[in-house]
């Protein structure tokens, strides 16, 4: 069973690849989180592997992922192999240690931990990668995923994570500030180029976007995934003055239909 959270498709691509090779089913964390349930219960098969695949937000797991784990109940857990994969633009900091603590609190020891470097997408601060760097990262990501497939198949007790410089500082100081301060959704807006297609609402992880008079409105339940920015076909969705001149990126191997299936629409 592979639990995944994704914004622009990088983590879903990794999760699909792993699930296919391991013969496991995919479970959307976003869909579960939007269900309103107090507990997320799942039945495990004997010797079933348990994976968590998620992006890195400011050198830590997205808060929605940690909240999901706190409410997670796995029936018939008998020391199954538990692993996590963090997708990141460059480094994951100590995100895997945060995941390990969260899982351990639920009686799920993290045995395998891995990171996969993929194209950048957090344009509210930085920018997307150039086309050349994007292609290089995607090619390298496939090689990394092959390594992860083999490690999971043999149930390796191994952490192979690109932590970057000063992970104790990035995850220990920057990540808590990021996690505690939600994105100011009042800064989201659309330009005159908005066609009212509703794609932003379809890809929203939190069911946080609704159309009013053909234009999107953002609520307060933002997961900071930036999918609405990147999937807008007319690039009309903006965040303050920070994104107007920035590029856009979605994983080329993941369709908008696949992204939307993992969400609960308002």
From TrEMBL:
<dbReference type="InterPro" id="IPR029039">
    <property type="entry name" value="Flavoprotein-like_sf"/>
</dbReference>
<dbReference type="InterPro" id="IPR047964">
    <property type="entry name" value="EFR1-like"/>
</dbReference>
<feature type="domain" description="4Fe-4S ferredoxin-type">
    <location>
        <begin position="184"/>
        <end position="214"/>
    </location>
</feature>
<dbReference type="InterPro" id="IPR017896">
    <property type="entry name" value="4Fe4S_Fe-S-bd"/>
</dbReference>
<keyword id="KW-0408">Iron</keyword>
<protein>
    <submittedName>
        <fullName>EFR1 family ferrodoxin</fullName>
    </submittedName>
</protein>
<dbReference type="InterPro" id="IPR017900">
    <property type="entry name" value="4Fe4S_Fe_S_CS"/>
</dbReference>
<dbReference type="Pfam" id="PF13187">
    <property type="entry name" value="Fer4_9"/>
</dbReference>
<feature type="domain" description="4Fe-4S ferredoxin-type">
    <location>
        <begin position="215"/>
        <end position="242"/>
    </location>
</feature>
<keyword id="KW-0411">Iron-sulfur</keyword>
<keyword id="KW-0479">Metal-binding</keyword>
